[in-house]
gamma-glutamyl-gamma-aminobutyrate hydrolase
Amino acid sequence: MPNHKPLVWLPACHRNLDLSDPGGYTVLADRYAAAVCQLGLQPVLYPMAGAADVPDLLPLVDGVLLTGSPSNVEATHFGASALETDMLDPRRDRLTMALVREAIAAGTPLFGVCRGLQEMNVALGGSLYQQLHTEAGLLDHREPEDVDLDVQFAERHEVILEPDSAFAEWAGGTRALVNSLHGQGIKRLGDGLVAEARAPDGLVEGVRVASAKAFGYGVQWHPEWHHERIPFYQRTLGAFADACREHCRERNGGCR
Ligand SMILES: N[C@@H](CCC(=O)NCCCC(=O)O)C(=O)O
């Protein structure tokens, strides 16, 4: 039995931090890694991993957490053109498009948060609204600018949860309040995804992977934000952590 905690792969972002370094930087918001640690799991990064490395690396981990990011999934992945204003991350896109499909096929627990949900949707053939706030009938789902993080991540709207879904179980009912920090959103649902949570404007904000052999969920909100004091977020993350522990036991005959 290995003497380590279940390992969770968090694909990083790649940014030019504007320090005149043409090599760029690998970036991961501590918030996600800290939440993984608080769940008793060990976050791991493979900074240079590309799509071709996924078959070698996926068997080494017990779960995959696709984090949020200010960058947008490039619209060329769903048959549209990127907007001039888009902040893009083509390396992350290339990795996560492959990772989503292979994690589902391999039965590795998979959880997508915000950009991560959008990646799951696009990897499975779905499309995104590129600017929700320009769409008639849809809410502006972006966070307020130039305010404290506590205000940016404050609960902003309800989600309506499918009765009998895991979301309803985690929320203890069919409605929950969530934060909202995104400009893109699901337009056409990816193949094999089941919509189980919707914003009041009808936008799909929570999905289940129908064929998942382990945990396979994505959410548009941020359950990692102060999950320790919000039972809905805590139960969602707890279910992902339980699935990672189970996968670790199956993979290794046990785990810490
Ligand atoms: N850029 C996409 C995804 C939005 C998203 O993931 N926001 C999280 C921002 C905070 C963080 O880095 O965790 C969109 O705008 O829809």
Observations:
- The chain has one domain: 7-252.
- The CA atoms of residues 80 and 197 lie 26 Å apart.
- The helical segments are 30-38, 54-57, 90-106, 115-123, 149-152, 166-171, 231-252.
- Residues 29, 68-72, 114-115, 181-184 surround LF53FM6H (CB under 6 Å).
